[in-house]
Amino acid sequence: MKRARVAYAGAIHEAVPHGSDDTLRLADGRVVGADAVVWLPPFEVGTVIALGLNYADHAAELAFKAQDEPLVFLKGPGALIGHRGQTRHPADAMHMHYECELAVVIGRPARRVGRAEAQAHVAGYTIGNDYAIRDYLENWYRPNLRVKNRDGGTVLGPWLVDAADVAWPPQLELRTFVNGRETQRGNSRDLVFDIATLIEYLSGFMTLSPGDVILTGTPQGVVDVDVGDEVVCEIEAIGRLVNHVVGDAVFGRSSGPVGDAAQGRKA
Amino acid sequence: MPPLPSGWAPRLDAPPYRLSGVIYGSLLNSRAALAALGPAVEQPPHKAPPRSVVLYLKPPNTFVERGRPVRVDAEAPELELAAQLGIVIGRTACAVGAADALDHVAGYLVVADFSVPHEAHYRPQVRYKARDASCVLGPGVTARQRVPDPDALGLRVVVDGRVVQEGSTGDRIRGTARLIADVSEFMTLSPGDILLTGALPGAPRVRDGARIRIEIDALEPLQTHVAAAGGRGAGS
Do both A4 and A76 map to the same domain? Predict the structure, then answer.
């Protein structure tokens, strides 16, 4: 089973596909077109935990050596948007890229959970597209939040697919299409630290709670995107997550950062 | 956000200071702390001092419920205490300028943020800062109107009856208004979010049994204690 969270006619609803993914049945019985709703992240999101360089081929692409410990960073709720949302591309950024990731959603509290028990703590899976703007990279507490925790920079959805519907461990093909052209391809079987290892590692120092989500990292094939691009992240058996890259003007910013912040950056 | 843990900071979870559970911390926001790193700031892997804000998150698993201890264990028997001023956001702040930034503040509180001591600032492991039970929020929020200048408040940390750190919320690279402005340029701050303004240099270290009191002028003092997981230590 898979579920979405959508806004429709003045309220937020749980929805399931009705016949096809193009039609939704809301929990209250209404049947509506997939383009008649606003898609939200498909569950109430708790702590967002992201992995850097968790595919060997992507690490090589960015000229990093493989890690001996998972490279983890956290994200705030302001970064999250749903399927078919808009992500802002600042005018002064030359190097903004998507990252298609298998997102693992926690379903049961996990504290000091071993690898062998990790599967029981997984509620399901969704797709994450975790944008980065490398122009803003600085070498202090990397990846710094200006690169990786921007408003609307983390797209989640469209569906939360039940763990029971996906073979364990997930060995799923990931692909990204920019304006219809395939730019990225990988398979979650190639994770450097697999899902069970990540749950064991994380739950060793932080209790994981239902709704927490682990973005497991992206394979090679990240390319820069620009205003007007449609970015589609697709994961076998999970879905197809659409995002639109838009310019500053859509957000009422005519010339990049506001004056104050621009000064701060040059200081 | 899912509901906060039951029993967590009940006095804070009431309008107009209903907290969202979102806490962002600032690092290296003290001129003296940055200067203390010496020439390393210009050398690899850093190559240059920070230009933009240096931030991190304290997720909800780090929150210490009222009266409960900060946890140490065999893997981290000693923690570094970043005693600091926390800003509670009162109005949505998105791309605000410094001149208007304080209009978006509901109030201030004392925050005790604990992390595993670490030397590297390039890509520190998240486990240093995201440990369970490693963030204590002050007992109450003081309204902005009662704090005329958040950048000129005396701060004292007392551990087991001895003053171990003393300073001022001044001497920051980014004062309160500038910090809100620079963060909100790329991250919207929402009502109830807390933005920490950063530690002073010389953060004290604490171990099992330590009793801690943090005073910041004009704010309600924060008191907490440290205990080893498994029941040892005061008050556990």
Answer: no
